[in-house]
Amino acid sequence: MFSNTVLPLEEIPQIEPTDFQPLEDDYLWLRISSWCLLYLIIGGVATLTVFKSEAAWWMILGPVILLFLFTMFVEIKGFKIKGFSLREKDISFKRGLLFYSMTTIPFNRVQHCEVTQGPLARLFDLASVKVYTAGGSSSDLSIGGLTKERAQNLRDFITKLSAEHE
Amino acid sequence: MSKLGLDVAQRQSPIGIAIIFFKNLRIAINILISVVAVSFGMDTSFFGLSIFSIGIIVIAIFLVISFLQYRKFMFYVEGNYFVIEKGLISRDKITVPLERIQTVNIKQNVVQQLLKVVAISIDTAGSDQKEMEISALSRSYATSLQEYLMAQKKKTVEQGEEDDKEDSAILMDSVSFELDIPKGQSLVNLSFKDLLKLGLTENHLRTALLVFAVVNGYVWQYEEYLLKPFEKYIDEQADYWMNEYLILVPLSIVLFLIVSVLISMIQTILKYFNLQFYIDRAGVRLISGLLKRNEIQIPEHKIQILKITTNPLRKLIGLKTLIIKQASSSQTVDKKSITVPGCNDEQEWHITNTLFPESIGDQFTTVRPNNYLLLRMTVWLSLLPSLLLGLLGFVQWEIGLAALLYLPISLFFINKYYSSISLCISPDMISIDTGWVFPTSQNVKLYKLQSVGFKQSIFEKRRGLASLVFYTAAGHLRISNIDERNASTIYNNALYTIESADKGWM
C-alpha cells in the first residue's frame, strides 16, 4: 500500500464522490438532440445508399440504428456520472461510462478561463466553462451543461482565485 | 543601452540582405522545381524567354524584395516593450513586454556561418505568440543584445516585485533569472570518436523509416525524371529479379542497413559536432552542430521533464541519452528541448543530481501495474496473433512456422516490457520507467504538474484498477492498471503538493 512519509495520509484532503455537483438536466436533452442531428445526417446518407445499391436495407441501416441505440444508452446512463466539484483550491470534472475520467486543475495552475456557448446550447440557454492550463489541450477542462448565469459565476470565481496566484 | 542604441529603431547587419535573399531563394527554388520544372518540363519557354533568363529575372526581383525587406525590418525597445517591425505589404509590428521574454537563443545556419553573422530568436511565454527572429546580427551585437534583454527582463520583474512588497524575499528566490551557467567547464564533451560511436548506435530503424519516407516522397514527386530513363532496363530485368528474390531481398536489406547507418552517422555528426553541455543550479546550456550551430539554454525553473533513454546498442557501450524538456506547446516541445546524447553513468548521475536533488534525499515508494496488464498484453499481442497465424498455417505451412516462432518471442518481450513498468513516487517528485528494449525514465517534480487525471475503463473498474495521467507543460506522463486505492492516494497527494507549493511552476 502506498504511504507518505511527510504527512499522515488522513490529513491530505481526498476528493469524495459526494463533493460532485450534477449538471443541468437540460444538458442531457441538449446532448441527445445534438446526437440526433448527427445521426439524422448519417441516416440520410445511409438511406440514399440503400436506394442506390443492391444490398438489403437492414445491411446498411441496421448498423446505423444499432450504433444510435448504443450511443443513446451510453449518453443516458453516463449522464449521472458527469459532474464537477469545486473546492477551495481546485476544480474537478468527471465523466465517462465506459471510460471514466476525472481531471483536477489546481487554481494556481489555471492559465485562463472562459465561457462558451454553441448555437444549440443557446436554444437550451446552457453554456460551458473552459479552464485552460499550460499542460496542453488534453489537460484542459470543459464543463458543459451549466446555465449561462451559473457558468459566468463559475468563471468569475475561478478567474478571481487563479489571479491570486499570479 | 547606449552601446546597443535600442532607443532608436535598429536594422540588422547589412549582411542581412544576403541572408534574407537566400531564405527567399530557397522558397523560390522549391516552388520553381516542383511547379514549373515538373509540370512544364525543362525546355519550356514563356513569352519567348527561356527558363534560364526567367530565372535571372526572378533572382533580380528577389534581390530587390530582399533589400526592401531588410530596409523595412526594424527592432527597438520602447518603454518596457521590445518591438520588431517588419513586412513589405502588410506591416507587422510585434510587441513583447520585456518581462514576458522567456529565452533568447543564438542560432547559426550554414549561410550565416559563411557570412559570419548569427540569428537571434526570442521566445515568449504563451504558445500562440508569433515567432520573433532577427536573422543577421554580428556575434558581438547578438551576445550583448541577449545579455541586455535578459538583464532588462530581470529588472522589470524586480521592479514589479518591489511594488507589491509582500513576500518579496520568497518571490525573489523563486524568480531568479541569472543565467550564469559557467562558460568554462563543459560537463559533456564529445570527441570525434564519440560521435562515430553515437552514430553507429543510433536508432537505425527510425533513420531507415525516415529515409524511406523522404525517398518515397521525392521519388514519386519527380518520378518522371528519376525513373523514366531506367524504365526500359527495369522492365527487362524485372522478370529476372522476381526469380532471384531470395538473393535480392537479403541483399537489399543489407544495402538499406548500410545506407541507414551512414545517414545516422552523418546526422549525428551534423547535429552534435563539438557539443558542449554546461550545467549548474541556474540551468542548462547546450551548444552543438557542424553546419548549423545551435545554442539552447533552459533556466532551472523552466525545466519540466528530465527524460533518460537508451537503446540496445547504446546500452552495450554504456551510454544514455538525456532529454531536458521545457515548457512549450506540444508542436514545439522537441525543438525547444535539450538533447544530450552519449552520457555515461557518472554524467547522468551528475545531471540528475543537479536538476533533481530530491532524487537522492527523498524516500521513494514504488507502484507497479497489476498482473492484469500482463494478461491483457499476452492475450492481445501474443496469443491471438499466434492463433490467427496458426490457423493460416493450414493454408500455407510457412505462416504456421512463423506462428511457432512468434509465440515465444512475443511472450518474452511482453514479459520483459511488463516488468520494466514502474512508478516511483516521493513527496516531491515522480519518476516513471517504461521499456526494456528502449528503457526510458521520465522525471517530474510534483509541484511542476499542471493538472492530474484519474482514468478508469470498465475493464479496469471490474478489477479495481485505474490509470493516472500527470500533465506537465512539456507533455504528459501516464501509468495504467495500478491499484485504484493507490491511484487515488497518489492523485490526492499530487494535488496537495501542487496546491501547497509556494514556488511557481515556471
Question: What's the arrangement of secondary structure elements?
Answer:
The complex is a heterodimer of chains A (166) and B (506).
Chain A (H helix, E strand, L loop, with lengths): L24 H28 L4 H23 L3 E4 L3 E6 L3 E8 L5 E5 L2 H6 L1 E7 L8 E7 H16 L3
Antiparallel strand pairs in A: 1-2, 2-3, 4-5, 5-6
Helix pairs in contact in A: 1-2
Chain B lengths: L15 H25 L4 E2 L2 E2 H22 L1 E5 L2 E6 L5 E6 L3 E8 L1 H5 L3 E7 L7 E6 L1 H25 L4 H7 L13 E2 L2 H9 L3 H18 L1 H5 L3 H13 L1 H28 L3 E5 L2 E6 L4 E7 L3 E7 L2 H5 L3 E7 L11 E6 L1 H11 L2 H4 L3 E3 L3 H22 L4 H24 L1 E4 L3 E6 L5 E6 L5 E7 H5 L2 E8 L2 E9 H17 L6
Antiparallel strand pairs in B: 1-2, 3-4, 4-5, 6-7, 6-12, 7-8, 9-10, 10-11, 11-12, 13-14, 13-19, 14-15, 16-17, 17-18, 18-19, 20-21, 21-22
Helix pairs in contact in B: 1-2, 6-10, 7-10, 14-15
Runs of chain B in which pLDDT lies below 50 for 5 or more consecutive residues are 163-182
Q: What is the beta-strand fraction of chain A?
A: 15-25%
Shape of chain A: elongated
Pick out the low-confidence regions of chain A: none
Q: What is the CATH third-level topology name of the largest domain in chain B?
A: PH-domain like
Q: Cα distance, first to last residue of chain A?
A: 37 Å
Give the neighbour order of strands across the main sheet of chain A: 1-2-3
* Main sheet record of chain A: 3 strands, antiparallel
Q: Most extensive interface, residues per chain? A: A-B, 34 and 40 residues
Helix share bin of chain B: 40-55%
Helical region count of chain A?
A: 4
Sheet of most strands of chain B: 7 strands, antiparallel
Count of spatially separate domains of chain B: 3
| First-to-last CA distance of chain B | 28 Å
Tell me, rounded to a whole number, the average pLDDT of chain A: 87
Instruction: Please tell me the CATH architecture of the largest domain in chain B by its name.
Output: Roll
* Quaternary status: heterodimer
Computed Rg of chain B: 28 Å
Name of the CATH first level of the largest domain in chain B: Mainly Beta
